[in-house]
Amino acid sequence: MKVMETDRLIIRWLSIDDASFILRLLNDPSWLRFIGDKGVGTLEDARNYILTGPMDMYSRLGFGLYLTELKEEKMPIGICGLIKRDSLEDVDIGFAFLSKFQSKGYAYEAAVATLGYGINQLGLKRIVAITSKDNHDSSRLLEKIGMAYDRNIILPGETEELKLFTSKSK
């Protein structure tokens, strides 16, 4: 199901048919460095990740992480969406793109659309984002889409200190 469209991108729900892409994305060097190893090493693992993560969130909340694909080529390049984690009070925006599609403006385009969707379509009053302290590109992108650094946090059960960014609807 298509959720949003931008000049260059289609942002849509993930399905189990996207398992091969998810397998590639979750094992991309930048994913492993900044997000971490999710233990997705096979197509079956990728299908399970989609079913128990994004698809479960769609059915419970009506939103989640979305596949981001190039409009013309219908080629998946990343994910961008809204996540409700038990460990955060607010919904957070998340994104990740294959290394070869980074620094081309795609993450910015998808994040602007997703933030707008969360505020205007879903009526969210505040959206947050978390990123590792050394992920300077993500921090810059969050600031570029209008979010502001709030403070460092450690999520329950974790040890890594993360940067928390916030955005408020107008």
TrEMBL record:
Domain N-acetyltransferase: 8-147
Any Pfam family matching the protein: Acetyltransf_3
Domain of life according to the entry: Bacteria
Coiled-coil zones: none
InterPro entries: Acyl_CoA_acyltransferase (IPR016181), GNAT_dom (IPR000182), N-acetyltransferase (IPR051531)
Name of this chain's protein: RimJ/RimL family protein N-acetyltransferase
